[in-house]
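Progress narrative, work stream C.
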Amino acid sequence: MRTLRLSRGAAPRSAEDVSLRPGTTTLRSGRASMPHRTVLRYGVRPFLVFADLLAWILAVQVTGGANGEHLVLLAVTMCLYGAAGLYRSRLSLSALDDSAGLAGRALAASAITTSLALLIDERLVDPALLGTAAIFACSAVLARALAYAAVRRTRALGWVAHPTLVLGAGRIGGHLAQLLLEHPSYGLRPVGFLDSDPLLEPDERPVPVLGDNDALASVIVEFGVRDVIVAFGSAPGSHMVDIIRTCDRLHAEIFFVPRLFELHNTSRDMDQVWGLPLVRLRRAAFRTFSWRLKRGLDVCVSAVALLLLSPLLGVIAAAVRAEGGPGILFRQQRVGLDGRAFDLLKFRSLKPVDEAESATLWNVAADDRLGPVGRFLRRSSLDELPQLWNILRGDMTLVGPRPERPHFVATFARTYPRYTARHRVPAGLTGWAQVHGLRGDTSIEERARFDNFYIENWSLWSDVKIMLRTLSSVLRRSGG
């Protein structure tokens, strides 16, 4: 049985690609006997885009035909709808719930389009544009009502039935599985529970228990699970965090029943199944299109920086050579994405006695052997500049958790359970922990917490903020 390798965004293709941890329950074979159709393979988004296009065609036909301004109106409106999450997949679909957002953003789009026309040429302004936007908003609500009805119908007929796994075979989990069986219009078909110590008796379970909690990744692949719902079970919350994170690279959406759900107010990120609230867990950053843009940004910035900084790199290299003799670059093995080791490059600030010292000496900032050049390079963080080559090669990224040596990774992993979760993304030249001063002799537990917070809440804008704060630190020479 092969072992799951969490390589750059790749998901395992079969159950043989996932190995069970020691002590897990043997799974029942059932994937072949549980086919599911994929009419809505890409969720409800194609239906909604098509509905909005029909609404726009109706609006422009009523107001006298399409022109350039109407096309701009359509583009701006759809961008505003997308930014507001009006194209996202949901379990509960209601045109009335969407109506205020649809109408308000259509009218806002008409104002934006008119403003753009005035900036270009006031003769381009169409007085009927506001009327077109108003008709578009009304027809969009009607079109969505029809689209939602079609989606609910395909779900109820079983044409769309995502295999769903419930984590936690307790009272809430059992009730939730029963609701999904009774109401197929939500599009989720429960295939079983996972629980190391099920609270429900066998005759109380609407679907079988397929294994213990640690078998989550294997069961997702074996049964083609598309959605996972985390209910209240026997496992402590801290243990469930680690289990759920093992599935970041698998293409399954994750919901969870919030604590004190009877007091919960609904929000944009919340859904519900027959009155039972569910929170959709944010999709892992490296499964999004924005993450691909991040790699493009890495390549562009690192290539341009290496080119523009080449005179400075030459000066630093000469200074290092003059102070410490041959050996300008310092290569050191570090641990990066998915725990894989790579050779990190730095300007040499101190020549280690031997390989053992290089691998195990924690910090040299206060070492008496540091010369003026080495001390300046470390203080200004200019010794890190050769890592731009690591970034261009793909070993690292501009922003991410700072990589550590294998010796310390093994030590920290035994002491801090959340430490290895940092390796879900590539190591970075700078990171969220570093811009908060967590470098050198600072708390490893806090570093891991900051790094995992960055991964869970990643966005391109957060990377930009971190790079700006890093630049500020370099200019103030507050490195270590």
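Work stream C, second folded protein:
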Amino acid sequence: MKPVQIVILVFVSVAIAIGISFYGDTSKYVCFQEADEIAKSRPNLKLHVVTTLSKDKPSVYNPQVDPNYFEFYASDTTGLERRIVYRNAMPQDLDKTDKVVLIGYSRGDYFEAKDILKKCPSKYEKP
């Protein structure tokens, strides 16, 4: 084999390996019902759920008892409401935002959020 062919072969192999590694780490945007269905076959697949906070339901955060437990309710884009458990401190100014993206896992009767991405309403409102 010529050296040029070897370099091309190594380059193609590295490109395929990078593509496969990105494919295995991607997560999907789903609703709660679809998250439940996916969790049956792949319980450790990280999912994104776009939600609206349910401000009429109570949230649970007591830092004196457990500073790493926050529980609240949110509705997905289809209107299905679910209890959310976030095993970390309550995100700052969460009550001032409407939409959040929850990244985590469906665990039957609740969604376990590993990360919470807040949409800043002031960025998208006209002055």
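The first strand starts at residue 28 and ends at 29. No further action is required on this item.
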